[in-house]
Write a structure and sequence with these properties.
This protein is α+β, with helices and mostly antiparallel strands and 547 residues long. The protein is 27% helix and 25% strand. It has a seven-stranded antiparallel beta sheet, with helices on both faces. Strands 16-17-22-19-20 form a five-stranded antiparallel beta sheet, covered by helices on one side. A four-stranded mixed beta sheet has the order 10-11-12-13. Helix 1 crosses helix 7. It is globular.
Amino acid sequence: MKKTDPIRLEVFKHLFASVAEEMGVVLRKTSFSPNIKERQDFSCAVFDPQGNMIAQAAHIPVHLGSMPLSVQAAIEHFGNPDQPEISDLNPGDMILLNDPFRGGTHLPDITLVSPVFQEVQGLKEGSAAVHPSPRLIGFVASRAHHADVGGMTPGSMPIAQEIFQEGLIIPPVKLFSQGSRNDALWDLIMANVRTPEERSGDLWAQIAANQRGNSRLLDLTNEYGSDSISFYMQELLSYTEIMTRKMLQELPDGIYTYIDHLDNDGISDRPVPISVTITIQKDHAKVDFSASAAQQKGSINAVYAITLSAVYYVFRCLLNLDVPNNSGCLVPIEVIAPPGTVVNAVSPAPVAGGNVETSQRIVDVLLGALAKACPDKIPAASQGTMNNVIIGGWDPRYNNSFTYYETIGGGTGAGRNENGSSAVHSHMTNTLNTPVEALEYAYPLRVVRYEIRAGSGGMGKFCGGDGIIREIELLVESQVTLLTERRSTLPYGLSGGQPGAPGENLVYKSGVEHPLPGKGTVTLDGGDRLVIRTPGGGGYGKKDQLS
């Protein structure tokens, strides 16, 4: 049996991560849309032949924890890598998908999966040449949020009541087969989006990223040998599993519960409860969401991949930063999310907001429960929303349609020994805000105000971070969709700290202020000003509390 060299294990951890990081650099530099190039709303990762995530770049948590299910969906659809004779995976293939019920998250997140093969040297037996099949080394994958994939409103994130209203659904299908592009599929996609030129540019960026990942993983295989690559992939998974079990053993055994609410589903005004019970027993954790609400009519439903991703993120945060980021973290964690609930929706439920909003609330309830097990390690609630703003219409400057998509940062929760951060993205998102210059260049919009929302963080011994005020003037008539949370529920404080301030949405029409709902679609005129005030984070400890 081959023995693990701890130094080589560390080397391979960084080698595999470097493949994902370089993929991300290629994707960002070659992308077309501000959403991907400027906000960096994309993720890249490396997987073993079974679809386990081996390494990831420091991209978007909600993408990365869920991507293994996309890779596994591709494997299940196109064959068994352990039995090459019945597999339809070949060198040069690229598999495209966005179906939330087959490994995806929500429709704008398009995933591109590429199997990576090593050509095996042919052998000669007598006079006959033997040409063995290429050896599957693993997979590389990229996921990017495309600013429009069709559907009933620009940006493909409407307050829908079924997924068919949200845009084009793509099951696992080959965009490239042995290096040849499926032109019919390409044309079908471009015919069903509002911004085909932008979609084409962003898809080519993902293709370039996957090609780079393929070549870099092959470089590693050729340098170190396929046996070493396979061995250290599994050793990295095992190491992360061991460290996760050790972390769980350090937590006190017990049952910890927490419940929080989404404001509503966008259809009714009723709060939507999300409840978790975490059972810690020695080196194992059971995370049970059975008491959560049933799936909703509106588009806040999360598919299982999202819930799994949130669980992965929270428990990964409790690990030492030097532990590899891979699927081994979830091996000792059992996740129970009954089908038909808001945390494991089934088709044809609308899911556009599950990826961006419900994922944040799942994190809030997980952290709220774990604060009872390890209070010194858990901060108060962050803003708990991505503040999704989508604006679309016709741009007379370029004589074509435009779709602007943005998530806006806010305050993070304070910790036991520190204030929260202001005006940043937190938890399940790791994007940037779109720079003002890029926004005004690309769209018929003008940023009038962009500042920290002073005083919105919760008070306490340590204060929560403040949110953001973003005011945008529309230069043309536009359709505006808002998908936001924490407008009525508050980001909780801990240990006596006060909650953060809720967010607010409003519009100025002819100088008169009008409130807007947290979720909804409205048509606004040129000259109207849309204002988003994002929530602050919760405070930690009573203000007069001594150290």
